[in-house]
Structures are given as C-alpha cells and as structure tokens.
Amino acid sequence: MLSLSSLMGTAALMTHSDDAHAAAEWGEHFQKNYRLMTEQEKIEARDRLQRRYSAEYGKPVSVDITGAQPGVLMGYALNIRKCIGCRRCVHACVAENNQSRGTRPGEKIEWIQVLRMERGKFEKEKMEHGYPEGLGIQVGGNAYTPAGQVLEGQFRYTPEAVPEKDATYMPIACMQCEKPPCVKVCPVRTTYREGDGPVVIDYNWCIGCRMCMGACPYWARRINVTTPVLPKEEMNPVTHYLGNRPRMRGVVEKCHWCLQRTRQGRYPACVEVCPVGARKFGNLLDPESEVSKVLERKNVFRLKSELNTFPKFFYFYD
Amino acid sequence: MQKLFRFATDYVGYILKGGVRFYAWMGTLALFIAGMLYVFYLQNTEGLIVTGMTSQIHEGLYFSNLVFLVGVAAGAVTIVFPAYVYHHEGMHKVSVLGEMLAITAVIMVMMFVFAHMGRPDRLWHMIPPWGIYSLSSMLGWDVLVLTGYLILNFVCGFYYLWCKYTGNPINKKWFIPLVFIAIVWALSIHTVTAFLIATMPARPMWAHTVMPIRFIATAFAAGPALIIIIFLIIRKTTRFWIDDSAIKLLTTIVTWCLGIALFLTLSEIVIELYARTEHANGLYYLMFGLHGLTGLVPWFWSAVVLMIGAFILFLTPSVRNNMTLLPIACAMAFAGIWIEKGMGLIVPGFIPTPIGEVTEYYPTFVEWLMTLGIWAFGFFVLTILLKGAIGILLGDIKFGAQAATAK
Question: How far apart are CA A147 and CA B315, in angstroms?
C-alpha cells in the first residue's frame, strides 16, 4: 500500500513538477498523525497548507495551530425555551466553517440540525377511542399525539415565519462527548478528544471508513462524498488545522466548536449569531463563566444521557 | 529452492492449459474485472458521490457484501472441522479445497474494504510502523483477524499441496496445531465482524447480543451451500471425485444452521415488533416500510421466501439426496442469506438516522458494477486456486513428473 501511495505521489510530482501544489500534496500525503507531530512538524504542516490554500483560493489563508489552553475545558449550554427555530446558527456555521455548499446530493453539508418538535393536540372526542375497537377491554388508547416528539423525517422544515405556532425547536450538533463513541471506533486514531474538550479530526489522516459516523448517536458527522464545493469568494481564510480549514474528498467532518475562534478567546459563530441569546459557551472550569452559571442555577439535561457519552453540550430551560 | 521454483512453474503451467470453455469463462470474468477497475478509478477521482451512499446511509452494497463474504470465509471451516476433528474420510480428501475457498473469500472481503473506503490511498495509516494500529477499534481487530486468517489458510493449504506435490510426508508437529488454530480463528473472524456492528448503541437495529451467533449460523449455512455447488461442478467438470458422504454431511450442516438462522430471525421479529419501540423502526422499515418509503420490503420478503423455501427443500429427502435438485436448494439458501445478512441487515441500521430522518438508499450502477467485478475477481481467483489444487490432488502436477516424460 505504501508503494501504491508513493507511486501516486511520484506521478503527481512528475506531471506538475513545477507546481507548488503538487509538492504540497506530496508533503501532506506522508505527514504523520497531527497529534504525534513534533512542534516543528506542526509548523511545517501549517506552512504547507497555508501555501496551498492561499494559491487555491487566491487570497492569504492562515492556518492556526494553537493548542489547548491550560485551565480551559470548553462547555456549551442551549436554552431550548428561547430557540425560535430561525436557523441563523446553521447558516452562520456553514459560512464560518467552510462547509461544502453544492447542489448535488451530498454536496451540501450542515453541522447543526434544528429539530422541529410537535406541540401536539389532544381532543375530547378521542378520549374513548382505543384498540381493539369495540371488543373487550381496550389494550391502549388513541388519544395520543406526538407532543414533544420529532416526527420521522420532518425536521427539514421551511416555514413562512418563525417561531411556528404548533412547534418547538431543538437544535443539535456534535455534543463533544467526554466519552465519545466515535473516537473509540476510529481505526487510525484520526479523531480524538483535545485537552480542552472538543473532539477533533485530523482531516489529513482520516481514511474515510465512516465507522465514527455509525457510532455517533447524534448524527453529528458528515462524509465528503466529493471534493467540497467552496467558492473562492465565500471561503473563510481564518482557519485552524483541527477546525475549519478546507477539507478534501473522502474524509469525515463535524462541529469542533469553532476552534479557530474559541482558542483565540472568541465565541463560536453560532453563539455570536443567535438573535435570542439561547446559546451559551464558556469555560467549565471557570465558576464565573456563563456555562458554569447555567449548570449551577438551571435545570439541565443531556441528550441521550442513557448512552453514557457524557456530552459537554447541555440543554436547559428557564 | 529449486523445488519451489519447479512447483511454481508446474503449477502455473497446469493452470494455463485449458480448453476454449476455460478461457471463455476466464475471459468473461476478466471483462467484469476491467469494469471494476474503471469504477474504482471513478470512485477515487470523483469521490463516493458516484455511489448511492450519503451521510445518512453511509454503508451500502459494499459493506453488505463484505459482511456476507466474511461469513463465506468462515464457512470453509465446515469442511476442515469434520476432517480434522471427526476424521471424516470424505471431508479429509477435500479439506484443502475449503482452504482455497477461504483464501478467495478473504481476498474479496479486502477488495470490498477498498471499495468502501473514502480514501483507500491512505490505508497505510492503519499499518504500523508507518501508521497507527488502534486496539480500541473493532475495525482494527477485524483487519487483524482477517489478515491472520488469510495467512493461516495460505500456509495450511499450500503446505499440504506442497507435500502432495513433492511426495514428502506432512510434518504433523506444527501442521495439526496450525489447522486447529485456523478452526478457532474462523469463528473469530465472523464474531469480530458481528461485534463491529453490534457494538454501536447508536444503531439499535444492530445492538443485539444475538448478532454474533446469528452471523455464525448464517455463515455456516451460506458457506457450505456455496461449497456444495462448487463440489458438484468439480464432480461434473473434472476427473476429481468428491464423495457423497462429504456432500451429505455438508447438506446436514446447511440445513440446521439455516434452521437456527431462521429461528433467530423470527425471535428478533417477535421481540422487536411486540414492544414496537422506536428501536424497532429499522426492522419495521425493512419488513413493511416506514414513512412511505419501502425500498427494502421486496428484498426482505424474497429473502424470507428463499430461506424458508430452501429449508423445506433441505428437509425433503427426495431433494437433499438428489444431486441435480440439491444445488437449487443451495442456491436459494445462498441468495436468501446474501440478502438477509447483506442489504437486509446493513441498510436498515441507518433508517431512520439517530435523529429520526428517514431516507432511502439505492445502489447506483457504479456500485453494482464494482460488486459484480469483485465477485468476478473472486471466481477468477477461485478457479485458479481450485484448478491448481485439484491438479495436485489428482497427481497431474507432481515433482519430477515432467522430467520423466521428457525422457
């Protein structure tokens, strides 16, 4: 296999020998898993990527390699009572994180999903209805409605205006689990938990086996079925190696809590854009942070907590 | 060393000798293999977008075939086990053919892995010392046991053939222990493959303790069913005779493993559909469709008909003892399990997604051609391996034989 890859690299070198692009790809192909790189190797990898991206997108692109900051454990809290389902977070995320925005199936990637939950409707006429109908003692009733439930396949809603009268909303994205099932199943350890909390992916080491996608109980991961469609003018040039740098064909990607922002002391794009302030982000180790205050004072819950994944993404209501 | 060189030349020489029918068969297979190479190129330039797989349903025809073929590889043990543990005379004569089938099936599995991967050019990332081998990943373990099984079967099979070729006695001191390791190893490959999908609570359709035994039961039905068909073809087309006793024992194994498989499927249906929680949505989609989408319903019911039909035929003495009718029952069992354990098990695991989205998966032409091509490649390899092995067993390939005729 090594010989096959080296052949391909050689071929790339020979066909565009004067192209910086080919040399960058050659170097990228044989670099180590990011987590095992020395500081020097990380800098080389960054410089290589900056050269390639800048040439490809026709503007200066920076690739940050800032590591986890000491004393920081990132956490997220979302007030589901406030969410109005406007999906500005979804669009801000796509713009910030250089997701693919093509039109063919699989070319459009969004990391945040806003689930639309039914309010339901209970009626007096249904009280006595049940099954079996008119035969013996009834086993169950038919007065149920899907209140507080996500209807199968109906979360891709396109309303005239939000919030809708008959719905509540529940946004979800990667939960940045403390015990992430996706990390456990990765055969090449390309996805792992960073010291400050987020679960990240080294896109250059991913082999595209998609085991992590099968293991994720929150459907947080996406596969790039083709080279991502990312127009030059829309590309966000402020990137992080483990974050929003442009991805390549055949690798998996997901939310990383905007590492390019959060490691520089900024909020993730979704937090910044939320018009109702439903999203809170901060340092779980700092008792004065918004997230710590939420955990201290509000009723919180974790999604699918029965799976023991221990998300650092909390839902709350007031 | 010279002997080894002679073995290789004699072996290749024997395989290349063949009539029009042999070359027509191999030529047809080669056509499909060429098609496979083209779509593999397509997948690795365009990307997986040329397949029907999506972020919702990201394992399809390839993974289904992979799972099924691991079973076929493990199924070869149904020859080796009676031969070496119960000293079954008829089986002992042909046990090397089982090993040849195991080698072929594992090679096919590896090709389906290549077809499945988003970045096959990075496979070396999981091979130390250049890459990282992760012990916490079931896929890592699967690669390990499959590679081990390939090596074990290669060593056992070709050492046996080598001894037959040279006329040397078999060194039982290490050969027999190795055969027994291979027997246990056969169970491990399919158990680990079952663990691979059953260890994901995110996919309730798969997260069952019954999965490993169901995998073994279906494997020991589908594997020997294929072997019976191959044996009957060998009896027809070569001078090599396979005893009825071997075929009859295999028939019994297929019958009861198929029976157990049916029982497990039925148990799962009762348990899942009685409570009918959201966790049963995948199975419900498979059996009746969900949210108006019914893509797999005909697949499931045809698998049920094929498997139950085959089971009844196997139980009928006039069919199971009739060597012209027996292959029909075998083909039915094989096809039924291919559906039930392939598309019928893998795809509904993704429907609905963990957050409740119901979508469907349809394999594209690219995927069908790739699948056909890999199966063609499998038959290509199997033909070569079986022809060579039979040549040696018949004594057509023998050390010194050519020298004798040259005089």
Answer: 51
Angle at A216 between CA A284 and CA B339, to 5 degrees: 175
Supply the CATH number for residue A250's domain.
Answer: 3.30.70.20
Domain membership of residue B387 as a residue range? 56-398
Taking the CA atoms of A135, A136, A141 and A143 in sequence, report the sign of the dihedral they define. positive
pLDDT tens digits, one per residue of B20-46? 999 999 999 999 999 999 999 999 999
Q: Do A5 and B124 touch (CB under 8 A)?
A: yes
B4 found inside a domain: no
Q: Is B292 on the interface with A (CB under 8 A)?
A: no
Q: Which chain A residue has the Cα nearest residue B60?
A: A210
Q: What is the pTM of this model?
A: 0.93
Say if the Cβ atoms of A219 and B355 lie within 8 Å.
Answer: yes
Reported ipTM: the value is: 0.91
List, in sequence order, every residue forming a beta bridge with B293; answer none if it has no partner: B290
Spatial distance between the Cα atoms of A91 and B368, rounded to a whole number of angstroms: 37
pLDDT for A19 equals 61
pLDDT in tens, A143-180: 888 787 777 656 677 788 889 888 889 999 999 999 99
d(CA B31, CA B373): 8
Whether residue B327 is contained in a domain is answered as yes
Nearest CA in chain A to B293: A153
CATH, residue B231 = 1.20.1630.10
Using a CB–CB cutoff of 8 Å, tell me whether A227 touches chain B. Answer: yes
Q: Tell me: pLDDT of B404 over 50.
A: no
B245 located within any domain: yes
Instruction: List, for residues A262-305, the tens digit of each pLDDT value.
Output: 999 999 999 999 999 999 999 999 999 999 999 999 999 999 99
**Does residue A168 lie in a domain region?**
no
- Specify the number of domains making up chain A: 1
How many structural domains is chain B composed of? 1
- Answer yes or no: do B118 and A226 touch at CB < 8 A: no
Domain presence at residue B42: no
Chain B residues in contact with A105 by the CB 8 A cut-off are: 49, 54
How far apart (Å, rounded) are the C-alpha atoms in residues A167 and A148?
9
Distance CA B400, CA B7 (A): 10
B44–chain A nearest CA distance, Å:
9
Three-class SS state of A171: strand
Range of the domain at A231: 74-112+173-317
Residue A36: inside a domain, yes or no? no
User: Has residue A18 been placed in a domain?
Assistant: no
Q: How confident is the model at residue A4 (pLDDT cuts 50, 70, 90)?
A: low
**Which residue from B49, B121, B290 is facing A225, i.e. has the nearest CB?**
B49
**Per this entry, what is the length of chain B?**
407
Report CB contact under 8 Å: B352, A206. no
Q: Is residue A28 part of a domain?
A: no
